[in-house]
Amino acid sequence: xxxxxxxxxxxxxxxxxxxxxxxxxxxxxxxxxxxxxxxxxxxxxxxxxxxxxxxxxxxxxxxxxxxxxxxxxxxxxxxxxxxxxxxxxxxxxxxxxxxxxxxxxxxxxxxxxxxxxxxxxxxxxxxxxxxxxxxxxxxxxxxxxxxxxxxxxxxxxxxxxxxxxxxxxxxxxxxxxxxxxxxxxxxxxxxxxxxxxxxxxxxxxxxxxxxxxxxxxxxxxxxxxxxxxxxxxxxxxxxxxxxxxxxxxxxxxxxxxxxxxxxxxxxxxxxxxxxxxxxxxxxxxxxxxxxxxxxxxxxxxxxxxxxxxxxxxxxxxxxxxxxxxxxxxxxxxxxxxxxxxxxxxxxxxxxxxxxxxxxxxxxxxxxxxxxxxxxxxxxxxxxxxxxxxxxxxxxxxxxxxxxxxxxxxxxxxxxxxxxxxxxxxxxxxxxxxxxxxxxxxxxxxxxxxxxxxxxxxxxxxxxxxxxxxxxxxxxxxxxxxxxxxxxxxxxxxxxxxxxxxxxxxxxxxxxxxxxxxxxxxxxxxxxxxxxxxxxxxxxxxxxxxxxxxxxxxxxxxxxxxxxxxxxxxxxxxxxxxxxxxxxxxxxxxxxxxxxxxxxxxxxxxxxxxxxxxxxxxxxxxxxxxxxxxxxxxxxxxxxxxxxxxxxxxxxxxxxxxxxxxxxxxxxxxxxxxxxxxxxxxxxxxxxxxxxxxxxxxxxxxxxxxxxxxxxxxxxxxxxxxxxxxxxxxxxxxxxxxxxxxxxxxxxxxxxxxxxxxxxxxxxxxxxxxxxxxxxxxxxxxxxxxxxxxxxxxxxxxxxxxxxxxxxxxxxxxxxxxxxxxxxxxxxxxxxxxxxxxxxxxxxxxxxxxxxxxxxxxxxxxxxxxxxxxxxxxxxxxxxxxxxxxxxxxxxxxxxxxxxxxxxxxxxxxxxxxxxxxxxxxxxxxxxxxxxxxxxxxxxxxxxxxxxx
Length: 948
Ligand code: ATP
Prior knowledge:
Layout: H1 18-24, H2 35-45, H3 58-65, H4 69-90, H5 102-136, E1 139-144, E2 147-152, E3 161-165, E4 173-185, H6 187-190, E5 196-197, E6 216-217, E7 222-234, H7 240-243, H8 257-290, H9 298-312, H10 317-334, E8 337-339, H11 343-347, E9 353-357, E10 363-374, E11 377-381, E12 392-394, E13 397-398, H12 405-416, E14 421-425, E15 428-432, H13 435-446, H14 451-457, E16 460-464, E17 472-478, H15 480-484, H16 493-500, E18 505-511, H17 513-518, E19 520-525, E20 528-531, H18 534-549, E21 552-562, H19 571-574, E22 578-590, H20 594-603, E23 607-611, H21 616-626, E24 634-637, H22 638-643, H23 646-652, E25 656-660, H24 664-676, E26 681-685, H25 691-696, E27 699-703, H26 709-713, E28 717-719, H27 724-764, H28 774-784, H29 786-793, H30 818-843, H31 848-866, H32 883-901, H33 903-909, H34 916-942
Parallel strand pairs: 9-23, 9-26, 19-22, 23-25, 24-25, 26-27, 27-28
Antiparallel strand pairs: 1-2, 1-3, 3-7, 4-5, 4-6, 4-7, 8-28, 10-11, 10-22, 11-12, 12-13, 14-15, 16-17, 17-18, 18-21, 19-20, 21-22
Helix pairs in contact: 3-5, 4-5, 4-9, 5-10, 8-9, 9-27, 9-28, 10-27, 10-29, 12-13, 12-16, 18-21, 20-27, 23-24, 27-29, 27-30, 27-31, 28-31, 29-32, 30-31, 30-34, 31-32, 31-34, 32-33
The structure holds adenosine-5'-triphosphate.
InterPro entries: ATPase_P-typ_cation-transptr_C, ATPase_P-typ_cation-transptr_N, ATPase_P-typ_cyto_dom_N, ATPase_P-typ_P_site, ATPase_P-typ_TM_dom_sf, ATPase_P-typ_transduc_dom_A_sf, ATPase_P-type_domA, HAD-like_sf
Keywords: ATP-binding, Magnesium, Membrane, Metal-binding, Nucleotide-binding, Translocase, Transmembrane, Transmembrane helix
Subcellular location: Membrane
């Protein structure tokens, strides 16, 4: 065999019997591979990873950077400016010391730099997103050395025995060893949307098509239902998906709404500036002609236009936005919220309704059984955590369980109708699998009923798996061995003896008590089954309500003797005429931090809605405890919801804060109804059938720990700790990001407007000459605006960020006064610099341009400091709370002074040395900007208006 090839039969796994396939791969269905063998195979076959392809190539990303209309305009400006310089040079009209093509080179450098910066950032963003996606991919369950383990997908090797369950995205190709009700959606591979029924027992002709290989499973496809044990046959690039690597979806790097709006803004700015240029040039020429001077001022007008065109482009903005979003994602991940789709960063802040699952998100998902109810008696169970130690009590007194056969019978059902594994890990008892089921194994263990032991006494031969729709599960066990086996002399056998009757099989069912009881016709009393009376039903349901209203999660148990193993898919008919065993109530304590988070949401204008598969009373008890349900709030059950039309649901949706006993498809209707009411909805989900609701929600949130791969794939964000409080923290970050983005947009664009007006004013005022060269404008836009803008991006949250309602996600970025602020400040900016320009031109004709340049730059320093808060005055803010702003202002001011005072820089940037008094005048004028903004804040405060 060559380094990474498989046996000859590799291509025809579907035509082999299971045993043959196991032989070929030298594996064992019950024990899997050994640790040493896995190491060898990892070396031989390499990690189970796909070499990603698809997506944009590096060249495409680079070229995309230059399709931006603003950059194209800059290139145009560079070329025209180069043409003028060439002409001047040829005419011998260059001034002494003047460097030709300076502006052209500078502009082109900026264009290229911008392109490279954009390229680096985009490719890093793509890589970062890809890495994040990997982080959110879940573990694979395998059998190794006879033990059940969870390992990373990339560590899977051919020969591994992999266990699949609903919601799993399959990590490698494999041959089914056994399966139960297995349905797999293979659309990722075959495009076929309907899930395929897979069967381990089949052997198929070699020429069978990929889509018809019903005894194989393929990497990247999804388990919709059921469970299976699979022998891994191919990994990494050898899998079917690996072979069609091009089919791999490109990493999601769609532009965020903000980035899209910025592109639109670019178009508006470019068009606007071209119109302005036309007016200035046209008007200037008309004026010149009317004075009989013809084209004498044409060159000056062209230079003015070029400067204006450069001034209009906020060159620093795209980089600042990208950096801000990237920093936002990083801050969120530190808080355990992993962003999968970039737009979520900026839209999270707009969420006004959070629909959250109960179990695990609002609660701890650490279940401890506290009560039992069987044969008309309620028992208390003591003990904490998953340790199988504790007492059973009746009326406060400890009881010997073996004297209560009905309890033993119930506990056998708990142990057998169960897929979880209780293990000891470094002294702690831990659960592999569903905590609800874990609590039941622990419970049985407290009475000495060991799951493993009972699994061998009552081997499982079939099952009807759990789903959130069915809200129940059943297992079918073979009983002959117990009946005939000599080892069946345990203390609980009398309990079992009652079940056996004369049948060969026994089905145990557990699930939602109402639904399970509805399927029962008999009740188990002591060791016998008797018809269940209406009164008994009432009693059981009343006890169920009593347990539920204490916040317990209650499960009902039943059994049914069967003459034969029922066929797959016959659940509806088989799960009838059951014998009722009893109720088990378990506590799942609320997460302690959630109460404060719900309160924070309320203050922030965000409504929390609980959506749960659990009983309405359990849901209400927990929701009340957490402050989610308030007086007047309604509880709606899945059944009631089912009966409602979409319109009715829409009318009620604002009043309901708890949805109980819902199925995943109801979630979709709830989101849609909320959205029709104009709500911006974040929705959590974990199951495979939650995916449509997660996609529909404005922010779909998957659970990092308990979530299925399918739900993660459909989500915008993954909660690494499954915790509701994390959603709230991420929402807060979203608000901070959005506020900061608005802040630096105001800051940057206000300055651009000021620059353009100042430049346009010069020829109109007949000053002769352009106050700012393109090079100086680039300097301002990139350095003196860019650095403080970056610092503003990390501005800490304002204290009231979660004390105000969210803003509409559909609002324009210029809404709530941002547009008018920009224009107003731009005009003030221009007025200050135009007055200064006039004064300087009249009194300091040698340095007037440098004075304008310096004043514009310094004015922005004051602006940066003042704009940190919309409402607080500078003196009210802690200057040290954002040291970056302070630092960037100091650095930028020093750089600006260097441009004015260091001779080589003077030459290059075309500045003149300013005298102390000239510099003082510049500082005086520029500080007017700061004074103005502070006066505005006072004015708005006085008028009682808040600006945000
Ligand atoms: P949430 O949506 O808040 O996470 P949930 O976890 O209670 O709610 P499901 O897991 O869909 O929702 O469970 C719905 C109901 O199904 C439960 O109330 C319980 O009655 C029943 N149930 C839950 N887990 C099992 C299980 N492993 N076996 C049988 N029935 C179960």
